[in-house]
Design a protein that fits this description.
globular; alpha/beta; 11 strands; three-stranded mixed sheet
Amino acid sequence: MIKISDLNMGQRVALELLWGFTWCISVMPYWFKFYVLEPILYFVLAKLLHYRRAVIEENLRSSFPEKSEEELQQIKRDFYHNLSEVFIGTFNMVHMTDKKIRRYYRIRHFEELKRNMPDEHIIVLFAHHGLWELGAFWTMEDPTHESLGIYHELRSKVLDLFYQRLRSTRYSTPVQKKESMRFLLTHFKEGVRGRRMAMGLIADQHPNIPVNADTHWFRFLNHDTVFFDGGEQLATRYHMPVYFAPMFRVGRGRYEMEFEMIYDGHEELPKHEITERYVQRLEQMIRREPALWMWSHRRWKHKRHAEN
């Protein structure tokens, strides 16, 4: 994990300037952030920069061959609006009080979820859909679980530390992916801050793994796709229940999330079944609100060859 001591003076200054800039945005009035800054950012991303336009259009056309060009262009425009909201919403998290969290984010059927939540470590599978960073706050109302945000180290040390600071709250702890197994084993008996661990995995990222004849492929959005199976391996090895957490946009910068158990920690399942359940629900969520997914990511770098 990158530490502040790993930065040179220029990088430290850049980090504090970035944090100060986003803090200023965070404390601005709601209407100004989401009805003034967000449209400006949309204009810059969509009209001036054409941010990753070719990647977005290619992903949309290959994922939805049944849709007309007009429908695809509308999804693209809506995606740029969503991307602008993700930026503003992420900046908005720099200064978060409990009251502010409840204004922007809530869990549907939370009392029922608390009653049925097992008193043990769990895995929660998120996706780059909506304002996913808000998912770190779901344990605010649950004193029995500590939210662990498993993340990939970023190339930029400044941005990596920025997101570490953003995700380090009184309800959540960031854990680098390559350290997650050791972290789990170290805290398996005692938990974190006296709470059971809820390991949050954003599982729809492009996996940086070699593809060979033994690679398992999932059918996802009209593509043969490779997914991380780390969450499934942890779940079956340590008997950890797995939840899928779809996100719903209910207003500008405002989201609701549900939790659906897809593995109870003890069910006998064939290999890849937990990930398959996640993939199926993820596609359903994306098809319901396609503009909320990150179409600017190069999700399908891996190609399935005939011999695979």
